[in-house]
Amino acid sequence: MAAQHSQGIQTLLEAEKEAAKVVQQARQYRVQRLKDARSEAQKEIDEYRKAKEAEFAEFQSSHAGTTQNVQATIDKQTETQLQAISDRYATHKDTVVRKLLDRVVLVEPELHRNLKKRE
Hints:
By secondary structure, the protein is mostly helical. It has helices at residues 2-105, 113-118.
């Protein structure tokens, strides 16, 4: 009976070792699956990022021309307005200077209004 008991224990130990191997393989398989899933997800993320960056670059290039055109139009309008201001300045400069000098130089002395009331 001791031999059978010893053989039963031996069988149980071997079954336990086999079970440990199966559990270890299952863990390794799970870890490998997780790694594969992560790398697959990273590839999908990279592809999506590249697609969105390409889409954004296309959007930028299609709208960059309009931005430059608008800027050129604004620059032309600004130049036109500056030229108009310069022309008006040149035209009215003498008149304004003459009016200023007349106000400063041609002073008509008169009594203050309070002094007039006293008289």
